[in-house]
Amino acid sequence: MSTIGELSDLDVADLIDIFTRRERTGRLIVKTGGLEVQLFFEEGRISLVSSSDMTIRLGRMLIRQGLLDTPRLLEALHAQSEDEHRRPLGVILVERGWITREDLIRCVEEQSIEALARAITNEPGLFVFDPGVTKPANVEAIPLEPHLLLKAARERTEALRVLQEQLPRQDTLLSLAPHHSDLDRNHSDLGASESMIATVLRSGPKNFGELGVHVALDELSIGVAVLTLLERGVVTAHTGSSHSRNSGRESAA
């Protein structure tokens, strides 16, 4: 029988501790802030963390870390589809020699930390635990240490909180400063993350959410890159939000 509760009664850290100490097997679903995160336990060990957020899926994470390019990802996804999804994507990539087993483990750990970090916020939400449910067979089997995973997720959450205090609101529009439009000539010294953000902004102003759709970067990396660009004067923050932009478009129509 499923156990259902509110995160105001037990938070995610409490739940992980309970299922770890009791060596439970099952699926924990956490729904908070419009996001769904699933944690699969096997005798108290976390075997999989997955998220409804497409930006932290395995393929995108591999691209973000510079371990894979888009054409090879698409080819591997096609091969997985032809195999009726019987084999995990990571297994296919390792078999073809496009990533190593170590690359896969590191990427799955990073994916899990980021997904969990988004689930341990203080926002209200619900949890459901389904005992006996095991992870899907067509995903990577990378055992994860619950307490180390939780520690890393908490550290990331705290780092993001501190960073957000220095950044504009999430709906603030960001754009390239007019005199920085020629990035190739003026800012060849930009880091990889800053260059990705600046390139996306060439097409027009974007808010943080829109940047997350266009670049293969996690929320923390986007924040650090934007802060650097703002401090260097490469990017400017508009006083109006994306709502103001949309309203302006409607008025013009």
Quote the average pLDDT. 83
Task: Give me the number of helical elements.
Answer: 11
Order of helices and strands: EHEEEHHHHEHEHHHHEH
Strands of the widest sheet, in order across it, are 1-5-2-3-4
Q: What structural class results from the helix and strand content?
A: alpha+beta
Name the overall outline: globular
Contiguous low-pLDDT stretches (5 residues minimum) are: 241-253
Structure overview:
The protein starts with a strand and ends with a helix. It has 2 domains: 3-164, no CATH class; 172-252. The strands form 2 sheets. It has a 5-stranded antiparallel β-sheet with strand order 1-5-2-3-4, with helices on one face. Strands 6-7 form a two-stranded antiparallel ribbon. With 253 residues, it is an alpha+beta fold. Helix 6 packs parallel to helix 10 (219-231) and helix 8 crosses helix 10. Residues 241-253 have low confidence and may be disordered. It is built from 11 helices and 7 strands.
Write the layout of secondary structure elements.
Layout lengths: L2 E4 L5 H10 L4 E7 L2 E8 L2 E7 L6 H7 L5 H13 L6 H7 L5 H19 L5 E7 L14 H19 L7 E5 L6 H4 L5 H10 L6 H7 L4 H13 L3 E7 H11 L1
Antiparallel strand pairs: 1-5, 2-3, 2-5, 3-4, 6-7
Helix pairs in contact: 5-6, 6-10, 8-10
